[in-house]
Amino acid sequence: MKLQSRVLILYLCIALLVLVLIGGVLPTTLHTQNLNTISRNSIDQLKHIDFALSNFIGSAKEDVLTLSLDDDVRTTDDAGFTNFLNASEETFRYSINDKEQKIIDTFKEYQTAHPYVSSVYMGREKGSFVRSYPRARPTAYDPRDRPWYILAKEHPGQVSITDPYTAVTTPDVNVGIVTPLAYPNGTIYGVVGEDITLVNLTSYISRFNMGHDDEIILVDKNGMVLTSRNSSLLFGNISDLLQDQTPTFLATDEGVLVLNGSYLMYYTSPELGWKIGEIVPFSSIERQINNSIVQILLVVLCALILLSAITLIALNYTVIRPLSNLTEVSRKIAETGDLDQTIEMGGAGEIGSLARSFKAMVEKIHAEEQRRQLVLAELKGHRDHLEEIVAERTRELSEANLHLQELDRLKSLFIASMSHELRTPLNSIIGFTGIMANGYAGEINAEQKKQLGMVQDSARHLLALINDVIDISKIEAGKIEAGVSTFNFDDVLREVENTLGPAAREQGLVLHVERGVPLSITSDERRVKQIITNLVSNAIKFTDKGRVDVSVERKGTVVEVHVRDTGIGIEKEDLEKLFRPFARVMVPGRLVEGTGLGLYLSKKLARFLGGDITVESELHKGSVFTFSFPVIYKKQEDI
C-alpha cells in the first residue's frame, strides 16, 4: 500500500475517533456547564426581579407614608366615621359625612392610579374603618383586631409589611402595607394602609420573561407560596412541591434543587425575606444541550475535513513526493553501485535535511575514497622521509616543554606577587578598620562602626578567597609542602568548637563536637583544622534549625571525621557538582554565599594528606560529610 493511501486511512480513523470521543464526552460536560450557566443566569435574573419587586414594595411603602401625611387623612376628629363594630348585613346602611368622603376620594384616586392595589383603608382607635370602596359584605368588623392594625401599632414611626392574611369578606389572600397615625406625643390613634392581593402580585411577577419554559414562584419566610401560575400551588406550602428538600430551601439564601422532572433555581430577597424561584423543566436544558452538541459536532466535522484535505495536500508536496524520490534514488544506488545519481533537494524541515544528508553521504563516500588514495600515496612518501619527520616532531616537543616551563615560572611569580601585593594590603585594611572600630583612632558613631565592620568582613572574605586561590594554585603546581607534626587531635576539635560555636548559637543551632577521644596524629595540623573548619562552617551556613554534630571514628590507620547536619540537604543530581571549582548548589528562595572554592580546596587538601572527603545527603533532611585521612602522614605523589 502506498504511503499516501496509508496516511489517508490514518486520518479517517483519527477523525472517526475524535467524533466518537466528542460525542461520548460532550453530553456529560455540556449538561454540567449548561446547568451551571443557566443557574447563574437564572439567579442573576431573579436578583433583577427581586430588585423590581423590592422597588415595587418600596414604592408602595412610600405611597402609604404619603397618604398618612395627608391633612384630611390625619384628622383626629373621626366622629361620625363609618364603623362596623356591630354591623349586620341585613340592617347596615352607609352614612358618610363630608370629611370622611374627602378621605374616601383620596383613597380612590390613589387606588385608581395603582392597579396592583386592591384596597386602601384606614382604621381608628375608636373602631371606625374607612375604605376606598365599600366592603363586599358589611359584616361585623373591628379593625383593631386585624393583623395589619396590630403590626402597625407594634412598629410606631415605620411603614411595615404584613405576612399574607385572608380577607374577612372575600377569599382573597392579601399583603398589607401599613403605617400608624400618631399624636405628637407618640400616642397612636389610627392606622393607614393598602392591600395588595396576591393574585395581583402574581400578575405583576408574571410580566418577567426568563427566556425558558419556566414558571416563577414567590414564597414567604414561612414557606407559603405567594405567587404562582400553577393554581394548585398558590397559597399552599412549598413543602407540597419540595417534600424533604423544604428545610434546605428555607435555610439557604440561594441554590439549585432537583425536582421531579425539573430544576428549581431560587434566590432570597435581602429586603423582603421572600424567596423568588424559577422552575425550569429538564426538557428545556436537554434541548439546549442537544442543539449545542449538534453544532459542535458539525463544526468539528467540517474542521476535520478541512484539516485533512490541507494536511494531505501539504504532506504530498513536502513529505510523500520527496520520500518517493529518495527511495527511488537509493534503490538505484543499491542495485547498480553507481553513486552518480541526481538527488533532488526539494522539501523542507526533516525531509529536506534527509535529502541533504543523503547527498552529503554520497559526496562523503567519494571524498573518503579520494582521501584514501591520497593517504596511500603519502604513506609511500613518508617511508622515505620518516627520520626527518621524527626530528621535526622532537624539535616541536622541546619547544613546547620550554613554553610550559616558562608558563610554570610565570604562574609561580604570579602566586608570589599575589601573596605579597594582595594579602599585605588586605591585612592592613583589616588591622586599620579594627583600630578604628575599637575607637583607638577617635570616637565613632554606631553607623560608622557598622560600615567599618562591613569593610572588615569584606576584606576578610577577600583574603580568604585569595588564600584559597593561592593554596589551590600551589597544590595544582605541586609547590605545597606539608607542615608535619605530631599533635593531639582533641585540641584541634576544641579550637574548631571555640571558633564556630558562637556563629551556631547566634543562628539558633546546637553545635556538638565529640571530645575527649585520646588520639595522637602525625600530619599537617593546620591543614587538618582548615578542612574540618570548612566542613562545619558549611553545615552551619546551610542549616536553618536543628543541630550540627561532629563525631570522630578511628578505623585502623585511618581517622574519619563525620560532620552531620539537619539542614536543607542536597538533591542527588547536585552531589557531583559539590567538589568542582566555583560550583555552588542553588537553593530556591535562598541567597547562596561564598565562592564555590571551599569544598574544592578541602578535597584537594584531603587528598594531599592521603585522605578524601565523601558526602551523603537527602533533600530537606540534612547531609553527612566524612573527612578521612591517615593517622601518620605519607607524602603523596599525585593529588
Can you summarize this structure?
52% of the residues lie in helices and 17% in strands.
Which fold does the CATH topology of the domain at 481-630 refer to?
A: Heat Shock Protein 90
| Broad structural category | alpha+beta
CATH architecture of the domain at 481-630: 2-Layer Sandwich
Estimate the helix proportion, in percent: 40-55%
CATH class of the domain at 481-630: Alpha Beta
Distance between the termini: 66 Å
Number of strands: 18
| Sheet having the most strands | 6 strands, antiparallel
Uncertain residue ranges: none
pLDDT average, as an integer?
A: 81
Shape: elongated
User: What portion of the residues fall into strands of 2 or more residues?
Assistant: 15-25%
Number of helices: 14
Spatial extent as radius of gyration? 50 Å
CATH superfamily of the domain at 481-630: Histidine kinase-like ATPase, C-terminal domain
Describe the structure.
The protein is α+β, with helices and mostly antiparallel strands and 639 residues long. Among the domains are: 69-202, 2-Layer Sandwich (Beta-Lactamase); 349-421; 481-630, 2-Layer Sandwich (Heat Shock Protein 90), CATH 3.30.565.10. It is 52% helix and 17% strand. It contains 14 helices and 18 strands. A hairpin with a 2-residue loop joins strand 15 (547-555) and strand 16 (558-565). The chain is elongated, with a radius of gyration of 50 Å.
Topology:
Blueprint: H1 3-68, H2 98-113, E1 119-124, E2 129-131, H3 147-154, E3 160-161, E4 165-166, E5 173-182, E6 188-197, H4 198-205, E7 215-219, E8 225-227, H5 239-242, H6 246-251, E9 254-258, E10 262-268, E11 275-281, H7 282-336, H8 349-421, H9 423-437, H10 446-477, E12 484-488, H11 489-506, E13 510-513, E14 520-524, H12 525-541, E15 547-555, E16 558-565, H13 572-575, H14 598-608, E17 612-618, E18 622-630
Parallel strand pairs: 13-15
Antiparallel strand pairs: 1-2, 1-6, 3-5, 4-5, 5-6, 7-8, 7-11, 9-10, 10-11, 12-14, 15-16, 16-18, 17-18
Helix pairs in contact: 1-7, 7-8, 8-10, 9-10, 10-14, 11-12, 12-14
